[in-house]
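can u pls check wat happens w/ iron/sulfur cluster
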Amino acid sequence: MSLPTIDHSDEVYEDPLDLMDEIESLKKEKDATLLAHFYIDGEIQEIADFTGDSLKLARDAVNVKTSTIVFSGVHFMAESTKILSPEKTVLLPDLTAGCSLADSCQYGDLDQFQQKLRAEGRDFETVAYINTSAKVKSLCDWIVTSGNAREIIDRVPTDKEILFVPDQHLGRYLQEVTGREMILWPGSCMVHEIFSIQDMLRAKKNNPGSLVLAHPECPHSILEVSDIIGGTEKLRQYVMSVKEPGIFLIATEANMIHPLQKSAPQHTYIPVPGIMASSGETCACNRCPHMAKNTLQKVRDCLKYGKPEIEWQPYFDQAKDVLQKSLLQ
Ligand code: 13P
Ligand code: SF4
């Protein structure tokens, strides 16, 4: 597996505070709203009009009143926003901000696999994690986020099998909590896949009473020693519900500590590090290199020049039906 790397070498240094001021005035001038996922740099989250998990942002986007939305996140998120709000101009600061999970399930491969299952006489519905391309979504019956997955799985008729794509770890976890058997696609997230279990257990031992909070995109080996498992919003709600100061080890993208700290500053948060498979050394692999492509400069530039923009594609129509019934109804 290739390791996440974060490269900002093409950017000339500019004062972050000046950039933040410039973005604030450009938002007004261009009639734009800025949305930022919890995995985006804290400085961008600070100037965003809405922050949240995939589910909340998808819902917030449809209520936005401005003509333009800047989505500080990754491609599938901005694409879903365009699909749910076709009349808006949707900008993504860097069009190459992808997602290893979305990449692990390609349209042609899924189409072929579904055809094979049908030829075998299997009667199934396909449930896709929102971390998929719109083209893949157009082949699916349901879309889930980490925030609504259980509720959606309950809507799949019990006489149908479930093909769950693309995250095998989330799928395995959902099998456990819903009791539904699933055919699992072998995809995974490059960030959640490589948390160091040894470092996590050591940190737990060195911090008596600490709790591990993990995203269900983590492999079973991490989830089985975690205390709280949930999508990013669920983790945020959890720390807010604990009044006494605690110590939490965070097994998800490291920027998640920003909204946790902001929402529940009484606690101490320790990021669980990633591990380099080749050398066994721990590293900053707990940062998503795709999310990290959203820099203040790129947010400013996309507002200033009105691009890169997510353009409407013919297959968006079909993806729209499945997104609407899964996320908005
Ligand atoms: P949520 O914020 O919906 O939990 O998703 C996490 C994620 O991996 C986004 O890429
Ligand atoms: Fe995709 Fe993983 Fe990055 Fe989320 S953290 S955008 S799942 S690569």
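The first helix runs from residue 16 to 29.
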